[in-house]
């Protein structure tokens, strides 16, 4: 661009704005950040920028025009932010490159507050967006894609460590080890994201208390979601879909306490919900549809309560590894219920026992699953319904609904 035209263009920009362009007076982000004042704005024009890791050390907004690309050439982190009140918007980040020595990311935020990472695109990331020791950051409406083949050579799409009060909303994530990963995170919200096709989990929680995730879709991951070693987690209106495999499930709750599972849909997964050490779990108004095992409830889960759920078309609605009942079921709809409703109050007059005798056999001898469609299993189920002797006596729904229950809690969009 001729020098005079550049001067005219700069004169038309708001005070405190610096423009980066491939053929302008400022051609790198590093130089623009040297020129931009605190609280200023950097505008990145279309082009491919290959430069050393960009370091943002004071409050600034970096806004990319469509076609503005930062290229890491497969061997470096693209941007590191250590200042408060930084906004990154509208940039495309390409080719971060895997590393066995460091957690390289397209954007890494360390020790900062109130960052905003919005409307960006990450392609071929190792880690995508990485927040460490942050407070009050927003990661909104980003599109993140990777081509990971193994857990060892892949990072996470959106990774939070030792952070609090974050909002993760409206992002699309695929191809990473874990789509979203939380460790030692407090009081944060994951809302309206689509995490699918990741190698291990769509979402992975560890040691993260008081967090909520709502209206997300987890589809076709190695397993859907694992929430582990956490308290007071609320899971509302999510969809767990098409998580298939010998060890796959829609949702794993492990060593949890005082959490709520409300208005979710578990559909077409090998196992919908696994509760292992999930104490005082409230599970209500959820739909379990066309799963292999809808709910696998271990003896270590005490005080769980299942109310108002629909169990439709599952191979096994509930299975357990215990003869004793430590959880309760009441007012759920079971498509396999064969009772009656003489007083026409909408609920069955005889209890429903959701644990099939054959499911207990499979729990202790998994290869016996090959007999599932056999005459032997049909006779076994019929005999157990007439004379229930081996299934857990206390694990019964005393008031099963006669019709599928309508939903008042909105669920995530399909």
């Amino acid at each position: 661009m001729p020098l005079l035209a550049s001067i005219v263009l700069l004169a038309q920009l708001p005070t405190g704005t610096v423009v980066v362009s491939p053929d302008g007076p400022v051609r790198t982000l590093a130089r623009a950040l040297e020129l931009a004042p605190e609280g200023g704005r950097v505008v990145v024009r279309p082009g491919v920028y290959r430069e050393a890791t960009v370091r943002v050390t004071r409050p600034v907004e970096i806004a990319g025009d469509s076609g503005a690309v930062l290229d890491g050439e497969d061997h470096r982190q693209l941007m590191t932010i250590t200042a408060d009140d930084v906004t990154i918007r509208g940039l495309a980040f390409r080719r971060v490159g895997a590393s066995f020595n460091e957690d390289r990311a397209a954007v890494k935020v360390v020790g900062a507050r109130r960052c905003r990472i919005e409307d960006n695109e990450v392609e071929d990331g190792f880690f995508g967006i990485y927040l460490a020791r942050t407070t009050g950051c927003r990661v909104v409406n980003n599109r993140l894609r990777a081509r990971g083949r193994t857990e060892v050579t892949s990072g996470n799409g959106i990774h939070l460590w030792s952070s609090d009060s974050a909002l993760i909303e409206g992002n699309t994530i695929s191809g990473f080890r874990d789509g979203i990963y939380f460790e030692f995170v407090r009081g944060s919200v994951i809302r309206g994201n689509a995490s699918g096709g990741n190698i291990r989990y769509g979402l992975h929680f560890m040691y993260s208390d008081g967090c909520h995730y709502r209206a997300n879709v987890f589809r076709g991951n190695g397993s859907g979601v694992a929430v582990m070693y956490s308290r007071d987690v609320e899971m509302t209106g999510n969809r767990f879909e098409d998580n298939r495999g010998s060890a796959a499930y829609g949702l794993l709750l492990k060593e949890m306490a005082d959490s709520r599972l409300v208005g979710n849909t578990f559909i077409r997964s090998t196992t919908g919900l696994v509760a292992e050490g999930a104490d005082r779990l409230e599970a209500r108004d959820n739909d379990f549809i066309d799963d292999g095992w809808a709910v696998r409830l271990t003896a270590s889960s005490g005080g769980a309560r299942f109310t108002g759920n629909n169990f439709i078309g599952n191979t096994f609605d509930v299975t357990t590894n215990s003869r004793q009942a430590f959880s309760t079921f009441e007012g759920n709809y079971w498509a396999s219920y064969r009772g009656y409703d003489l007083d026409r109050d909408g609920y069955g007059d005889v209890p429903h026992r959701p644990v099939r005798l054959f499911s207990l056999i499979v729990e202790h001898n998994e290869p016996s699953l090959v007999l599932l469609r056999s005459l032997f299993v049909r006779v076994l189920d019929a005999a157990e319904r007439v004379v229930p002797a081996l299934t857990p006596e206390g694990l019964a729904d005393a008031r099963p609904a006669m019709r599928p229950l309508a939903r008042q809690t909105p669920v995530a969009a399909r």
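The domain at 30-208 is CATH 2.160.20.10 (Pectate Lyase C-like). Residues 295 and 399 are 19 Å apart (CA to CA).
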